[in-house]
UniProtKB/TrEMBL annotation:
It comes from the Bacteria. NCBIfam families: PRK05461.1 (NF003967). InterPro entries: ApaG-like, ApaG_domain, ApaG_sf, Uncharacterised_ApaG. This is Protein ApaG. PROSITE patterns: APAG. Residues 8-132 form the ApaG domain. It holds the Pfam family DUF525.
Length: 132
């Protein structure tokens, strides 16, 4: 099955694509817990080797509460991408509300050691309405 990436951003030749899905089997609305999984593909369309060093997420819940999450790499990796290469990973986000959003940036290191901030596109987190 071909992945449908719903959101994308390009910074200096590096494209970040995001596909997000609500996971009802991991959610417990009766307990105020909702969970999404997101698939990210990072494509190096630049002409130089880059390494993903850190990530910064801005997660906003449906009540407007903002959380910032910073860390090294993605899912325990700091991938090196040669020109034309891509890197995929999957992670998840729990919220205490049925709606919210995520956005942020990665910091890459270029061949000359200089940092490059690459935008992660804004994407909504929305649980489907449940009919009783």
């Amino acid at each position: 099955m071909k992945e449908l990436f719903q959101h994308a951003a390009i910074t200096d030749g590096i494209t970040v694509r995001v596909s997000v899905n609500f996971l009802p089997e991991q959610s417990r609305p009766e307990a105020g817990k909702w969970f999404w999984v997101y698939h990210i593909r990072i494509e190096n369309g630049s002409h130089e080797r880059v390494q993903l060093m850190t990530r910064h997420w801005r997660i906003t819940d449906g009540a407007g509460l903002v959380s910032h999450v910073d860390g090294d790499g993605v899912v325990g990796e700091q991938p090196v991408l040669m020109p034309g290469q891509s890197h995929d990973y999957v992670s998840g986000c729990p919220l205490d509300t049925p709606h919210g959003s995520m956005e942020g940036f990665y910091t890459f290191r270029g061949e000359d050691g200089s940092p490059l901030e690459v935008r992660i596109p804004y994407f909504p987190l929305a649980a489907p309405a449940t009919a009783d």
